[in-house]
Records
---
Amino acid sequence: ISPLAFGQGVTVQISGNKAEISIPEISNTTIIAVDVSDSLDFPVRNIEINSKQPIDVAEFTVEIMDSGPEGVEEINGTIYQHFTIDTNLTNEDVTYIKISFGVPKSWFSSSDVDKTIVRLISTNSEGDWDVILTEIISETEDEIIFVAPLINLDADNYAIAEIPPWVATTTYTQIQTKTTTITTDTATVTSTVAGNTVVVTSVVGGSS
């Protein structure tokens, strides 16, 4: 569906390690999926929003970081990438937001990492890391694509890492409960508002 058919002037501008995404005029109870990047150097592939109410403009800034945030405990796992996600949206605006991200197969080989325990993790208000329920959705010749919800929109520090099950035991249970609710809501909303489901082909800016 053309973005113009829904008044969508969606833009994705990528410069170096930063992507800026702008999605105007989202109707209530609408699912919007925006492609971000297909470069192996930039992990975020797609952002999907399910709106609760009309949104004038949804904005995201994704920035790849060389290291984790200061004052946060060290991650007990093998890290692929640190990054930040800033958005103007709140939990009152959306039923869910989820991202898909790609990890090169070369990293799995060189780091001896198990793809089945790669997780998206985010910081919480206590300075710890929450482990988010993460799923593999596809594989290409060069990378494995994962999807995970953004469960706490107040958090902006994220990482992609292999998290051993014994590390994830406590937070995994907590996040899994939240994610189950999100998944249930997704199935319900998708089936009841299918006419409002929009897949946006974004206008991607150049990189430098």
Note: The longest strand covers residues 55-65.
---
Amino acid sequence: SAPLHLAAREPQNVSARRTLEHLSRLPLRVRRSLLLVGFHIGRRFGYLAASPAEALRISVALHIPLKNALKIAGEAMFHDLMFAVEWLALKNRTPAGLFRDARAVRITDHEIVQWASEQKAVILATLHMASYATSLAKLLYAHFPGRQVVIVRSKSITEDERQALAKLAMIGVQAEYLFLDRPETFLDLVRLVKRGAVLVTLVDLPHEY
């Protein structure tokens, strides 16, 4: 969506990018609270406005009034910004800061997670929604230490994402992206999982990602 692309993947808006970079260096609870306050101020004074085209698309798709669709589009904008901040935090926070952030994350279903961590072949299939970056990092660090982690993608990654993976390596999470751009790549993926790699796939991502 537009806010994420502007702020994180395609930093055309230098001011917005700089603001998110600063926020990402703060502790998890602090950065999320400040982002929420800043977002509401921006909406109140017109600095941040949901795209009318996006709202119209939501209105048509969900068969709801445009007023309600505008509210949903605004909420989506906020969560896109928070998503961007959390990925930037993986890059910008110190290892000690990442460990402190992880303490604010609660993992449920411990029995299921523990069972999965004991299996040789593990596939973590999740939805591409919410600000999952810090939570995923904690899950991998706490329950899959020392395991190779493969994240499936269809296109190349950004420099921010490369730096985030490098920071994860500093805390013991050996993660890498595997690009499914060739048929033979699927065979490589199967071999990695059979050898004990943890596969992370976001099942609802469109093919362009």
Note: DSSP finds ten helices and four strands in the chain.
---
Amino acid sequence: KDLERYLDRADLFIAQKAFKEATQELQKARLLDVDYKEIEERENKIAKERQTVNARVTELSNDLNSSMSEGRYDDALKFCSELIEVDFSNSRRWSAKIAEINTKKERAAVEQKRWDELIREIDSAHLSEDWKKLNSLTKKALEIREDSDIRSKFEKSEGKLAEIRKNEQFAKTMSEINELVVKKEFNEAENKLKNLESSFKKDGLLDA
């Protein structure tokens, strides 16, 4: 009677994929009948099913790791749920993993929302030709992640800002030259004009 009870309990654990507990019940049964054929049959069944389960756990674990590294959190949750069923003895571990994935998923959603808002601001600054704002926003975005379109807009803003600075410098220099002419300080005015021309030639804005 005790032998049958151990075998029945072993069968129950095998059905639940709780192979460690099933093996413990079979060990108890062997103490009552070392050569009982049904014990050996169950031990062989455990070995075979454990091998199948281990292969599936390895496959699902690899899928889980890949989906996590690629940010596919919904897929990761699906693989974890399946692992809870397949790897029953470690279900607590996979349940904890689900909680971890959900936390990362929520954090990623918040970060994506911020990124989308940043992209909208970048597009708006580009459309309005606010080069200073565009430069600041694209620089901020590129610190978060590399993006070819944002990189292109950043380089465009850099060029435009350099052009603006040159124009401002030109206007300032011409104003100074005009003031010198009014004061009849022609030599100094001529020197400033020559320096301006030299600067233009250096930048390729005038023929050498």
Note: The helical segments are 2-15, 19-32, 37-69, 73-86, 91-127, 131-144, 148-182, 186-202.
---
Amino acid sequence: VLSDSIKAVASAIPTKAPQVALNSCCLEFDLGSISFVGFDGYKLIKYSLDMSDTGVLDFREKILIPSEAALAISKSLAKGKSNVEMSFCNNNDKKYLIIEKDGIIIAVRLRNYNYPDYSKLMRSDYDFTFVIDKSKLKETISSITGIGNAKEALPVHFIFTEDKVSLRFVTQDSTVSKTLNIESKDGQVMRFKLLAKTLKDVFPYLKD
């Protein structure tokens, strides 16, 4: 579970962000639940697990695991289904996370920074909401993100009307333009841009 949870947010965990705290996988323990958070400044991914039935997470704590360490933990613990033991310790005023599984012991020095307050991005009263057919969205994203890694830094243009959204992606070699029907709750006309890489990172989360 620990390995899969880190992997779920890995695409939003940067390693070279100017804000040092972002170069971390944020773990939030909250009275029976644990959330894994990655935020690279462009996208936020939060993966939460309800573990109230275990009775072992009855506390509140927020920790920051450095990016490289979090990815190494995910890789090291990927095999096997046995339980993982987690504990904290202090050494010379530094806080460490200790992870044990199948004879593997990992000690990680935690970051002592304030993680950005992302709660404003997770609210329920958004300014603009819409419903779109997932299969058609996946097909559209696939046609854009399948053109090669060299184009990932280029923007994808989104243009919303009352009942449609047009996605347009222009490179030196080709143009991809798709229009999809939507059900808009607000009927707003708006436009914005997303990097192609951001769409590529989001694609795996549009599960069937």
Note: The helical segments are 2-9, 67-76, 134-145, 196-202.
